[in-house]
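I have a small job for you when you get a moment. Can you supply me with one protein entry, sequence and fold together? It will help me judge whether the discrete encoding reads sensibly. Write everything out right here, beneath this request:
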Amino acid sequence: MLLQSISKGLKMHKKNTIFAFMFAFTSLHAKDAMIIGHRGAAAYMPENTISSFKEAIRQGVNVIELDIRKCASGELIVIHDDNVNRVTNGRGYVREKTLTELKQLTLKNNETLITLEEALACIDKKVAVALDLKEEGVAELVTDVVKRFMHDHSWSYEHFFATGFEHRELKKLKALLPDMRLVPAIVGTPHNLTHSVDELDPYGICLLDLVWSPAVLANAKNRDLKVWVCTMANESKEALERWVLAGVDALMVNAPDKGKQMIQTIANYYRFLFFLDLDPSKELNTPHISAFKSDNKIPYGNRAVIAHDTTTDDIAILNDFYKNKQYAILLAPHQQQAQTEALLKAHGYTYDGLYPLMTRDLTNLPAIAYDPHISIKEITSLADIETLWVSIFSEAFKKDAEQIKLFVRYLTSTAQAKTIHFYVGFWDETPAAVGIAIERDNVASLHCLATHPEFRHKGLGSACLHYRMNHMKEKGFQKAIALVSAMGKPLHEKVGAQETAVCTIYCSPK
């Protein structure tokens, strides 16, 4: 349905329109989202143990979160609960047992409870550590350990975060360690988020999946705070996808491998959403930019996704990459979107509109009865695609058929075998609607839904959309995605698709 946006086009380029064919936005952001191992890799090993931390490192986490309490003899113990009942073969409160007594207890895999020093020695700067202060009275002891590891073992503040619900203890820690990055945990919607955390001078906030608030997420992003989410073991694909698409900066998970897989999968979804596998020599990837170009050998091939922290230098890099040829930029919602849009406008970029990203779970896609006049079929002959499919599409949007044919030839030549499907919808015997579906990483991306003007408002668009979804479902795909125009959104909602994000498109100056 995205190609309905062609009907309005990118208004500033009437003579040489650049279609909004861009691989979608989260490829950059998803790559940047951190994975935090909650108590290590607690889904696979006993939590807060040496084996759990080693497994988290093996699975490639960016940060390990661990819990800190003080025992009766004054050492800092890595344990979540205030008692040992759940995780060991003993009973009683941590604060009432000495280190010697605690070391006599065993966990499910015959490991023992460990001190903060033992945990840091195990992690050994391989990843950063998020220290969750579980109770009052530990800030001074944590400070001593952090300073000692920085002095004796070459750790730095870049290796540490501090988090948790004990905000007063975090405030004490910040006074003792001014450069410590604080990420206080937040529950629900505080009456005044600014008042709740600003006195801590936080690096970010940590939300809980079970009680998160969209208002708090938006507030934090508007104030340039990093947003972590603790999944609370809700690590279904749907939950992880929701958070990654929401643009959070870190997922705190019990199963790091699943979190990493979801981030990479989503990156792949949208990296290839517009199915152009260009020559790597024509690809630009920097920390702030991901872009492709066609050198204008095909229409609509120059498009870029830029990160939230784009600078004037990045704009110069883009212009040099495209050699001053026209291109389009796609922005996803993010913490500094207002600043990024202001930067683009200052450099002459023109706002073109908002484009919803629609997602449909195909596993529960119902069968529907089409109008008896309607039939849909896939066409595979290149000759049919270049004549029948192209003619309907060009008529639907009043675009030059030869340019559309170039575009189709490029798609069919670059797509992997059997991954791109062209469809034609018929009203009785007359071809009247078209669409495309692309197979990519277990997700079907849907594009180019168009109906001939003489056959609109007859249900052909809905039928063609549903047919493509059902075809992909029969091939084993569980999800379909489409970046659509505002006009196309209701049609996708009609077949049960939901908006999961909204993207903004800007056009480069001439």
Q: What stands out?
A: DSSP finds 16 helices and 20 strands in the chain. The mean pLDDT is 83. Residues 256-271 form the longest helix (16 residues). The CA atoms of residues 14 and 500 lie 31 Å apart.
